[in-house]
Every structure is written in structure tokens, then in C-alpha cells.
Design a protein that fits this description.
Blueprint lengths: L4 H20 L8 E9 L3 H12 L4 E4 L11 E3 L6 E3 L5 E2 L2 H9 L5 E2 L8 E4 L4 E2 L8 H18 L15 H4 L2 H7 L8 H5 L11 H7 L2 H10 L1 E3 L5 H11 L3 E2 L3 E6 L8 E7 L2 E12 L15 H7 L3 E13 L7 E3 L13 E7 L5 E8 L5 H17 L6 E10 L3 E4 L2 H5 L2 H6 L7 E3 L9 H11 L6
Parallel strand pairs: 1-2, 1-13, 2-10, 7-15, 13-20
Antiparallel strand pairs: 3-4, 5-9, 6-9, 7-8, 11-12, 12-13, 14-17, 14-18, 14-19, 15-16, 16-17
Helix pairs in contact: 1-10, 2-10, 2-15, 4-9
Bound molecules: flavin-adenine dinucleotide.
């Protein structure tokens, strides 16, 4: 029997939890009490990188992951028929030294990302009709807006790529809705580029500017204007396969946090009780690093004070789903772009599809869907199928949806505080929790949804954990 390399990789990543843990332990069951310098909760981009870098810094770690795999929002679907890896989460990384070094240590090959391709078909998915008079901004105007925007970031908001360390008096630019920010600085020609990066942020015109400015960051703009982006031809999940190999039995997969107690006596003040496939395990540690998005459910088992709980309850999530769909009737190079008809900047209304984009695998398209509220997976899939039928009925493209190869709900995504909270020092209070009761926080909520910037954030946070 011949098996495609991608299938082998898929199988390998599926077996990661069991195989790596049992190999590293020599098939011995895991002890029910484990002692480490740092217990990390969450094995996505931030937690995995933190685990490796803390080990580099001489700390022992236990990395606790809820699912059977590392990577979180970074996930690859391997199409058996074509062997094409399709990333259904993270796709690109800034081409900077930190990223190149990280990939090199994990033996991950990366190449410059190529965004070329035929122009997308602008279709209003709510009617299924082509938006005939849609015209993207003139390239010269778009370039000028990008340079002007980069200047504003450099001159007025140079700290934004470092996290949420804001001045005591929060600039009003950061709290105002992004739509107003665009008008104030005449940056209309930033669309649709800024929207392409802002997928998953909900209504970006209404969102407090800080979230869009951090997402469409100086690092991103520099990549667009010059340094470029990297992508991983073998699939982004291979980064996490490499990390899983290196971390071995330091990762506890499929583990549910039962309780978190801080302030225990002795050298190991943190006690995290877990339900794991090997039974209950207690991880005792000197420090706790939370690397999953804060949510009342995620923190239910934490011994939080009232003020910790109330601060984190101010976050409101957006919702974002992705999948791979089988389409027929259109060429494999066609992108169907949801485009608003007579809406500001031609933004589509949400909840809705962002786009159906080619994957490189014959007959398969990547679909992305955004919503301000949490929707059932089935409801999102039905809405996508309805949209495709509407497009065909309207005669915009003879397309037909044959089914979903995979579907992934990435909720909760991009947790935001209100404009009022941002203006009144919310992030000063959040940052004030770093180190409180030996607990630290990393990940997209504390930086932005950008792996390269999250890793940069870790590089600054981790050395501070033991000072
Ligand atoms: C569709 C999509 C496309 C994207 N594209 C890009 C891109 O091209 N480039 C880019 O840089 N970024 C991209 N992003 C942003 C991406 O979210 C971030 O780059 C990064 O992956 C976020 O990592 P994180 O560690 O903060 O969170 P997550 O990836 O959410 O990781 C959190 C982890 O914690 C686990 N977990 C949750 N709760 C618990 C618990 N209680 N106990 C233990 N474990 C728990 C989860 O299972 C998960 O593995 C994209 C995101 C999405 C959804």
C-alpha cells in the first residue's frame, strides 16, 4: 500500500499525543504529581513558543493542551487526493529574523508567500449578484495611504507592536471607532487591504481603533511594503509537529483543567489539577503562564479574586470560522469575494462569508466566515451553502457546493473591550495582573492575532517571569 507523505504527516500529527508521550516516558504511566518551574496552559502559537523558549532560558515546563494537538488556530488540512496541504487557520508570517530563527530550530522550511492571482469576482453574497461597479482603489492612492498610515504609527503610536503598554493618558485615536480614525486621517484608500487583514475582527468600522491598528500593525505594513511574508509549503501545522517532537512528554494533551490554586505554601506555589487520558495529574509549579483566550468558562476553575474575574469579564469575543468546501462549476483559480453593494468601502455585512478562495487543490476552496455572535457550526455551514446557491441563481457564477471537506470554528476570536474601557485605562489594569500571584498571560488577547508579534511579545515577557 502506498501512502502519500501528507497522509503520513496527518497520521503522525493525529498520533502525536499518544505516541510522543508514551515514547518519552518509555510507556510508563505519567506520575500523578509533576513539578516544573512553569505550568503553561494552552498549546497554541503563544504557549508552544513560550514552552520552547522557557526551556532555552533554563526553566522546566509542563505545557497543558486541551486538545490532542499543538497549534490552536494554526491547523492544516491535508487533501489526500492531491497531497496539497491547506491551512485553515494561520497562513503567513512576517519575514523577520525571529521567525526565521524559530523555523530553523524546528527544521521548518519557509518560502516567500505569493499573493498573485487573477482578480477576485466581487459578488454581494446577500443577493448573489455581481457588484458590477465595484472598483478597487487606484494603486497609487492605496500606496500613498499605506505610507501615510505607517507614518502615523511610527510618529504617534510607536509602542503598539509591543503589546498593550499604553500611555497613562490613552490617546483618543486608540479608543475612537476605526471608521472615524480612517476619516480623521483620510485613509479611505487603505480599504480593502486593511479589511483583508482584519477578518475575524467583526465590524471593523465600529471596533475601537486600537484593535485594528494592532492587527494591521507596523510589522504587517512593513511586510507589505518591503520585507514580505513567509509561508510554510508543507503546511503550518508542521511547525507544531516539530515543536511537539522537541517538547516530548512535557506536553499533556487532552487535558482538562479541574482547578487552579495559587498561593500554596513552599517553593511551588501554583497547583493545577488536571483530568488527563492517563488519569488525574497535579502540576505544581513556581509560575503559571496562561496562553489561552480569557473567557469566563476557561477561568471558571481558577481561584481568581473578584477583581481578576471582573476585569476579564469585560472582554467581548468576535466569532470566526473557516473550512474547506468542495465546489464545482467554476475554474480552480476563481476567488468569490463577498463585496457590499453601496456599503461603506464595499464591506460585506456580517454575519457572512468573507471569501471563497482557491487552495491549489483541484475542486477545493477555502471559506472564511465572520460573525459578531456565536453561531452553531451547522448554522454557519447552512448559511454558506445558501450563499453559494444564491450566487448560482443570480447567474453570477455557475457554482455549486458539493460539501465540506473540513470545518473549524475558531471562536472565541479577537476579544475586545469597549471604547470607553480602552479610554479609561482598561489595559493598564490588565497589564497590572502580569505577575500577580505568580500568574502571567500571553497570546493574541494580550498582543494581537499575529503569530510573529506574539512570539516577539513572548521574548519580552518570559525573561521577566523570574526577575
Ligand atoms: C482563520 C485564521 C487565520 C489566521 N491567519 C493568520 C496568519 O496568516 N498569520 C498570523 O500570524 N496569524 C493568523 N491568525 C491569528 C492567529 O490566531 C494567531 O497568529 C495565533 O495563532 C494565536 O495564538 P494563541 O496562542 O494566542 O491562541 P490559540 O491559537 O487560540 O491557542 C490557544 C490554545 O489553548 C488551548 N486551550 C484553550 N483553553 C484551554 C484550557 N482551558 N486549558 C488548556 N488549553 C486550552 C486551545 O486548544 C489552543 O490550542 C489567524 C487566525 C485564524 C483563526
Amino acid at each position: 500500500m502506498t501512502m502519500h507523505r501528507r497522509s503520513l504527516l496527518k497520521l503522525a500529527s493525529g498520533l502525536t499525543a499518544v505516541t510522543l508521550a508514551s515514547h518519552a516516558l518509555g510507556h510508563r504511566p505519567r506520575p500523578s504529581r509533576v513539578r516544573r518551574d512553569v505550568c503553561i496552559l494552552g498549546g497554541g502559537s503563544s504557549g508552544t513558543h513560550a514552552a520552547l523558549r522557557l526551556r532555552d532560558l533554563g526553566s522546566s515546563v509542563a505545557l497543558v493542551e486541551r486538545t490532542h494537538r499543538l497549534g490552536g488556530h494554526a491547523q492544516t488540512y491535508f487533501d489526500d487526493a492531491s497531497g496539497v496541504p491547506i491551512n485553515i487557520g494561520v497562513v503567513v508570517f512576517e519575514n523577520v529574523e525571529l521567525v526565521r530563527d524559530y523555523f530553523a530550530r524546528l527544521n521548518v522550511s519557509a518560502i516567500p508567500a505569493d499573493f498573485s492571482g487573477p482578480p477576485p469576482l466581487p459578488i454581494d453574497f446577500s443577493t448573489g449578484r455581481l457588484v458590477e461597479d465595484y472598483a478597487p482603489p487606484d494603486p497609487a492612492a492605496a500606496g500613498a495611504a499605506l505610507y501615510a498610515y505607517r507614518q502615523i504609527l511610527a510618529q504617534k503610536l510607536p509602542y503598539l507592536d509591543d503589546g498593550f503598554e499604553l500611555p497613562a493618558r490613552v490617546p483618543e485615536d486608540l479608543a475612537m471607532p476605526f471608521g472615524r480614525f480612517v476619516e480623521k486621517y483620510s485613509l479611505q484608500a487603505l480599504f480593502p487591504t486593511v479589511f483583508l487583514f482584519g477578518q475575524g475582527l467583526g465590524d471593523i468600522l465600529a471596533a475601537p481603533s486600537i484593535y485594528v491598528l494592532k492587527n494591521f500593525s507596523a510589522a504587517v505594513v512593513d511586510s507589505i511594503l518591503g520585507t514580505g511574508f513567509l509561508t510554510v509549503p508543507a503546511g503550518v501545522s508542521t511547525i507544531y509537529d516539530g515543536a511537539a517532537l522537541e517538547l516530548g512528554s512535557d506536553v499533556l494533551y487532552e487535558s482538562k483543567v479541574l482547578s487552579v490554586e495559587r498561593g500554596c505554601r513552599g517553593q511551588y506555589p501554583i497547583s493545577v489539577k488536571l483530568s488527563t487520558p492517563e488519569g488525574e495529574v497535579v502540576v505544581e509549579s513556581k509560575k503559571l503562564l496562561v496562553a489561552f483566550p480569557p473567557s469566563p468558562k476557561g477561568f471558571a476553575s481558577f481561584d481568581f479574586t473578584g477583581s481578576e474575574r471582573s476585569l476579564f469579564s469585560s472582554f467581548r469575543p468576535n466569532h470566526y470560522s473557516t473550512g474547506v468546501v468542495r465546489l464545482s462549476g467554476i475554474s480552480d483559480a476563481t476567488t468569490l469575494q463577498n463585496t457590499g453593494n453601496r456599503t461603506p468601502y464595499a464591506l460585506p455585512s456580517l454575519p457572512g462569508v468573507y471569501a471563497l478562495s482557491p487552495t491549489g487543490a483541484p475542486g477545493l476552496w477555502n471559506v472564511k466566515y465572520g460573525s459578531p455572535t456565536l453561531l452553531e457550526d451547522r448554522a454557519v455551514q447552512q448559511a454558506i451553502a445558501r450563499d453559494v446557491r444564491r450566487i448560482a441563481r443570480a447567474g453570477s457564477a455557475p457554482v455549486s457546493l458539493e460539501g465540506f471537506a473540513i470545518f473549524r470554528n475558531h471562536s472565541p476570536f479577537e476579544l475586545m473591550a469597549s471604547s470607553r474601557e480602552v479610554a479609561s485605562g482598561f489595559y493598564r489594569r490588565v497589564n497590572g495582573l502580569q505577575g500577580f500571584r505568580d500568574t502571567f498571560y500571553t497570546g493574541a488577547t494580550f498582543q494581537t492575532h499575529d503569530s510573529s508579534l506574539i512570539w516577539r511579545f513572548n521574548e519580552s515577557l518570559l525573561p521577566k517571569m523570574f526577575t
